[in-house]
Design goal:
Number of strands: 0
Structural class: mainly alpha
Number of helices: 14
Order of helices and strands: HHHHHHHHHHHHHH
Shape: globular
Strand content: under 5%
Largest sheet: none
Oligomer: single chain
Low-confidence stretches: none
Length: 331
């Protein structure tokens, strides 16, 4: 990789971010041409354009950007920390625990009490999953122990979600739970932005703090200790960042998978492959990819809008195929 290639990545992603944001504000069932869009942004547009822009598209665009950024960053951090190219937030059970809390809010009718109940329960169960992860992994600093504990917690959360679906009091509640589990940022308001943003900012700050420790961990635990890395403090910060940030993202978007898996693989060839050099590109790339995916689900002509989690699942398939073909060449 040449230095110039690396230097061009961040500006390219920033341009992609701006294009994705403008396209997300412009395209949908009603297209807003540039002159109408910028007139509404300046406060001179017609009432219809103003309502579409500020009540529907702007909250949706902001949520797409911050949720995508959080998932992309979390995937890059976990792939570096666990030294596993297939790691993503669901590996540690963070996504599924947050989903279990949201499903519980829908199942018990608490989501109807107040708009913050569903995200609040999602974040709390994400933190509860983190606590359980610490209890199960004990004092071990091995990535394999964390992965096994995460799989156990994730399986438990999925079992809880399945139980809620199985015992759903009526078909409408089951359909509501299923719709939420498929993942979508449709019909989100500015209130959802204020719910998710503090969690994502705090979680993102914790994850961005340990780039040097991630580089040291690529030498193994002993190598990292010899370089002065406190593995316990590093693990505490990273797992807290994953639980808080991903919990906040899942709380407003539902279960959207594979962004944390796909994005680091896309940007990695354009970096020097150090874990720390992947963090910012993955954050920006996640925001760009999820926002463009959300634009796509609006434009695909279907009777009901395609759920975002369904589309990202299809986007994850090529990544697995590329890995499969690469491994076959090595056999």
């Amino acid at each position: 990789m040449t230095p110039s290639r690396h230097r061009g990545l961040i500006p390219l992603l920033l341009i992609g971010l701006a294009v994705a944001a403008i396209a997300s504000l412009s395209f949908g069932p009603v297209t807003l041409p540039p002159e109408r869009l910028f007139a509404a942004l300046a406060g001179h547009g017609d009432r219809v354009a103003h309502a579409i822009l500020f009540d529907l598209r702007l909250p949706r665009t902001i949520i797409g950007l911050i949720v995508g950024a959080m998932l992309g960053l979390a995937g890059a951090v976990l792939q570096g920390y666990l030294r596993n190219p297939l790691a993503e937030p669901s590996v540690l059970g963070a996504s599924n625990c947050a989903a279990l809390g949201a499903v519980g809010a829908i199942y018990f009718g608490m989501a109807e009490w107040h708009i913050v109940m569903l995200p609040l329960l999602a974040i709390l169960t994400g933190l509860a999953g983190l606590t359980l992860l610490f209890l199960l992994s004990g004092r071990s600093e091995s990535p394999l122990t964390l992965i096994l504990a995460g799989i156990a917690i994730s399986t438990l959360a999925i079992a809880g979600i399945s139980l809620a679906l199985n015992l759903s009091p009526n078909p409408f509640a089951a359909m509501e739970i299923m719709a939420w589990l498929l993942g979508s940022i449709e019909n989100r308001s500015i209130d959802h932005v204020w719910i998710a943003l503090p969690c994502i900012l705090l979680g993102g700050a914790l994850l961005l703090f340990d780039g040097r420790a991630l580089d040291a961990l690529s030498l193994g635990e002993d190598g990292a200790r010899s370089l002065g890395v406190d593995l316990k403090q590093t693990r505490l910060r990273l797992l807290a960042g994953i639980a808080i940030g991903v919990g906040g993202a899942v709380a407003v978007s539902g279960s959207i998978g594979f962004i944390g898996l796909i994005v680091p693989h896309i940007v990695r060839p354009w970096t020097d492959r150090r874990p720390s050099s992947l963090l910012l590109p993955s954050l920006l790339g996640g925001a760009v990819l999820l926002t463009f995916a959300d634009i796509l689900v609006r434009l695909i002509p279907t009777t009901n809008e395609l759920k975002l989690g369904v589309l990202t699942a299809f986007l994850g398939v090529p990544v697995f195929l590329v890995h499969l073909l690469r491994e076959r060449r090595l056999w």
